[in-house]
Design goal:
Length: about 400
């Protein structure tokens, strides 16, 4: 076979053309990027608002046999402890009956005040909260409430000590601004009478002006206050004596009537007969309660304590004039203490209801409401209320 001879120059030209063709094809084809991590290749996700941390505790469904945690706070006679440490009170007995009707087991959690108790229900730290929790619009925003379990309201506990039996108080009443004004008016009238007498008796008198002044004041007092008219000889003196006698009688009558009225009224009143008497008085209530909110809303600045039990000694020692709090609690204190020096001053002035608080959306609320209606229907509720509140004192 004959060999074909290709010149070297021609082979080089062909190789160059081949390289140019490969370069053209490489530039024309789309570039395939190298593999990248998925997190970098994906577009950024839209930003989501931060959510508050949810409680780790699961909300109970209220099935029979469930073990529930119920928050309570001390409030005699609704929640208390006996000598053995067992929980007692109206609210405790009420919840125990509700739990029995639903087949629930209860573990009570003790909270020191109303704020922490409501916060526990709000944060799902407890399944329910019961004591004497007033149903308010503000609290309804953070928790759910059952049907009202007790009708309450605000009232005033004050000391009932008649002023007529207290000598020091009687003297303070006598030395009042009104009495001082009458005495000042009497002094001005006597000085005026003394000045007139001094001027009239100046001619032909051997006494100096201050002697004539004092004699005239004494004579005016004798005529106007004691009715000693003497035996005036001159017609002008008779007219002046008679006029002064009439003025003295009018003054003595008005003065006596004013003082008698003040002493009588203050002797039969405690000083506080209702909420209208609270401004200017020393008032104490529980911090964070609806009573504190009411007082501050009506421009009454109360002294506050952490519990109602701390308020009673302040009233007994005379450090405050009145205790303002929930009516059933004050009534129970009055019945239990048998203190004859204390009284409920005036009627209930801010009606409100107690309810059982639940975390928002709790499934227990409907079942508790059904149990409350059953207790009213079968008379259990009335028997329970009579046991704590309607017993004879």
């Amino acid at each position: 076979m004959a060999k074909i001879h290709i010149p070297a120059r021609t082979a080089c030209h062909r190789l160059g053309a081949l390289l140019l063709l490969l370069a053209f094809l490489t530039a024309a084809l789309p570039t395939v990027p190298a593999a990248v991590p998925a997190a970098l290749a994906a577009p950024p996700a839209p930003t989501q608002p931060a959510r508050p941390a949810q409680p780790s505790r699961a909300m109970s469904t209220g099935a029979a046999g469930s073990a529930l945690t119920v928050g309570i706070k001390p409030l005699d006679p609704f929640v208390d402890r006996d000598d053995t440490g067992a929980y007692t009170g109206f609210s405790i007995d009420l919840w125990n009956d509700i739990a029995r009707r639903n087949g629930w087991q209860t573990r009570y959690a003790w909270y020191p005040d109303i704020q922490s108790l409501v916060a526990a229900a709000r944060d799902n730290a407890v399944d329910a909260a019961i004591s004497g929790i007033s149903i308010t619009a503000d609290r309804e925003e953070s928790v759910d409430f059952s049907y009202p379990m007790f009708d309450a309201g605000l009232q005033i506990l004050a000391t009932d000590t008649p002023a007529g039996l207290n000598l020091s108080q009687q003297l303070r009443n006598l030395l009042s601004p009104a009495t001082a004004r009458y005495l000042l008016a009497l002094l001005v009238m006597l000085v005026l009478a003394g000045a007139i007498t001094s001027a009239v008796t100046r001619v032909g008198s051997e006494h100096r002006w201050h002697q004539r002044m004092s004699n005239g004041m004494f004579r005016a007092a004798a005529i106007g206050l004691a009715g000693d008219v003497g035996d005036p000889q001159k017609p002008l003196l008779k007219i002046m004596t008679f006029a002064w006698l009439i003025a003295g009688l009018v003054f003595v009558s008005l003065f006596t009537a004013s003082v008698t009225t003040q002493l009588t009224v203050r002797s039969i009143r405690t000083g506080i007969t209702g909420v209208s008497d609270l401004p200017g008085k020393r008032v104490v209530t529980v911090r964070g309660s609806t009573a504190e909110s009411y007082l501050r809303h009506h421009d009454i600045k109360p002294r506050t304590v952490t519990s109602i039990d701390a308020a009673y000694p302040l009233l007994q020692r005379g450090e405050v004039d009145a205790v303002v709090y929930d009516s059933p609690v004050l009534q129970h204190q009055l019945d239990a203490s048998h203190n004859r020096r204390e009284t409920l001053a005036g009627p209930i002035f801010e009606p409100e209801d107690y309810g059982i608080a639940f975390p928002t959306g709790s499934a227990l609320r409907k079942k508790v409401n059904a149990a409350l209606l059953q207790m009213h229907a079968d008379g259990t509720y009335d028997e329970l209320r009579q046991r704590y509140f309607d017993t004879p004192s």
